[in-house]
Design a protein that fits this description.
Elements: H1 2-25, E1 41-44, E2 47-50, H2 51-54, E3 55-61, E4 64-69, H3 75-84, E5 92-93, E6 98-101, H4 107-144, H5 150-183
Antiparallel strand pairs: 1-2, 3-4, 4-6, 5-6
Helix pairs in contact: 1-4, 1-5, 4-5
């Protein structure tokens, strides 16, 4: 029984780290990356559809993204979706493709992005700690019900704590790498 609880907690912690990696991919650095368009949805015949499903995204230059919609009728809607997003980008279209230039990040914007990264990292840490708390509660309930002994409960709690420490270290490492990437001029 403790193994099932530990496995479940491990999965939840792992998902928190995966979600954080996904969030970090959406935070733009000085280099152009198509990953930041993952959260942008375009109104495609009345259905909000992810932009990356409706267009090919390429980066011919480090400071430029070119979006080539498969259906040319969505160019205006895609351009509007990018403008209305919180990315702070100014797309332009020539009727067939959308060009999105990436301005160089200034010091103030870098600091804002660093704060945003810290917020995402803290949310991931909280998710990991919540998984630990839920697992420890499950151990205590099983102990009270007589399903497992006190020694097993203590050992399992120690195991969960080790996993928690490892996942939080992983989160801190991801944060450090992404912060260096953003602060790089």
């Amino acid at each position: 029984m403790p193994d099932a609880i530990i496995t479940q907690a491990d999965e939840r912690m792992s998902k928190a780290v995966t979600a954080l990696s996904h969030e970090f991919a959406g935070v733009r650095t000085g280099r152009a990356s198509g990953a930041i368009f993952e959260k942008i949805h375009v109104d495609y015949y009345g259905v909000p559809t992810p932009l990356l499903q409706l267009a090919a995204v390429s980066s011919p230059e480090p400071q430029l993204i070119v979006i080539s919609p498969y259906d040319k009728s969505i160019i205006k809607a895609a351009e509007k979706a990018i403008l209305s997003s919180d990315l702070g980008l100014n797309p332009s279209n020539d009727g067939t493709v959308i060009r999105v230039p990436f301005p160089a990040l200034n010091e103030e914007r870098r600091r804002e992005l660093a704060k945003l990264l810290h917020t995402y990292a803290e949310q991931a840490r909280v998710a990991v700690r919540n998984a630990r708390r839920d697992a420890n509660d499950a151990f205590k309930k099983a102990d009270k019900a007589g399903e497992i002994g006190q020694d097993d409960t203590r050992r399992a709690e120690e195991q969960i704590q080790k996993k928690t420490d490892a996942f939080i270290a992983q989160i801190d490492e991801l944060l450090k790498k992404k912060e260096l990437e953003i602060m790089e001029v």
